[in-house]
Amino acid sequence: MELITLVSSRPMMDERCYLVLDGGNAVIIDPDSVEDAAKAELARRGTQLELILLTHGHFDHIGSVEALHQATGARIAIHTDDAAMLTDARRNLSGYFGSPTTQCPADLLLRDGDLIPFSGCSIRVIH
Known about the structure:
With 127 residues, the protein is of the alpha/beta class. The chain contains three helices and eight strands; from the N terminus they run E-E-E-H-E-H-H-E-E-E-E. The longest helix is centred in the first third of the chain and has 11 residues, at 35-45.
């Protein structure tokens, strides 16, 4: 298993996003403004993005969700308490920073203790 750190291209935010690779499968965690870099890395390695995993729904962690979902068909997963943040610029705080943005809704709503299968392992949700 390999972990690759991508840095957001959003000015002044410098957020980190993580691409977890195992064989031909990948999970991306908190993708903000990294769609081009993420797609290039996936293509370079011949890897399929399976899941877009969000630790929370603030705008600086969700900016590439819809673009990656449309490009790869990867499922979107977020904790049930933050799910509305994907589709509400006020809740994800983007409206307060002058660039209101929303993303497509989640495919998978998570709860504390859930196990997300990935490439023979499990990712545990800790809320």
